[in-house]
Structure formats: C-alpha cells, structure tokens
Amino acid sequence: MGTWDVGPFDNDTAADWCGDLQDADAAQRPGLIRRALATVVEQEGYLDSDVACEALAAAAIVAAQRGGPPITSAYAPEFLRAGGGVEVPDDVAALAVRALDRVAGEGSEWRELWEEADAGSQAAAAVAPIREALTRTTLPGAP
User: Fold this and answer.
1) What's the rounded mean pLDDT across residues 76-99?
2) Cβ neighbours of residue 125 under 8 Å, at least 6 residues apart?
3) What global pTM score does this model have?
4) What are the φ/ψ torsions at residue 11 (nearest 5 degrees)?
5) What are phi and psi of 105, to 5 degrees?
6) DSSP 108
7) At what angle do helices 29-42 and 12-23 cross, to 10 degrees?
C-alpha cells in the first residue's frame, strides 16, 4: 500500500475507493459508504489494512456530513471538495464509530503498520476528530 500521510485519504487504497465513490451514481453512494463500514465491523479475525483504509475514508465522509472535519484532501472525492454532499441515514454514524474502533483496535493491520513505523500516535490523532464528531452526533440529544 502506498501511504504518504496519516490522514484518512492519504493512501492508495483510500484514494482508489474515493475514485469509485466519485464515479458512482449519487443514489449509490450511501450504499458504498455503508458497505465499506460494515465490511470492517463484520469481519472476524485479523483486519486487513485495505478494508480498514476504505472504512476510514468512509467514516471521514460521514463525519464531514455531520459537522465534523471538512473534506479538503486532494485525494477525497471531487464532489465533496467542491461543496457537494452525500446523504447517509442516521444509523450510519454509529456504524462508522464501530468501524473506527475496529480499525484502531487489536488485530488491525492498519494499526500495526502505523505502530511499526513509529507513527501510531500520529495515526490515532488523525482519527480522533473524526470519531469525536461521529460520537457527538450519535449521542441522544445531540444536534
């Protein structure tokens, strides 16, 4: 996997997934996002970094749609960088939190690769604002 930074879009896998999201019909995009998140949550055993990278990008997109960190990466889908959006059902935010926890948890190749590169804390710091935004918007009574 080609990786150039710790952001959710800063690797070849996420960039390719974002290209697929960009090319998809607008009506298909929520399903692609849900599928990327559900794949991680439902996978048993060791979590491959490729599916983790796709889920991180999907979670970042969901968080941005809910007032989280804005999408500014040149590797994110162009329609989002241009101010467009994607409507995802409310339950997808909770799914995204679960996916992030799985990606950052034990048995995750994504986590192990960052730890081996002595950048585990930087990678975790890049995920934290995404998770925070998702958690804030999934709590009862949250705006």
Assistant:
1) 95
2) 6
3) 0.93
4) -155, 160
5) -90, -175
6) B
7) 140
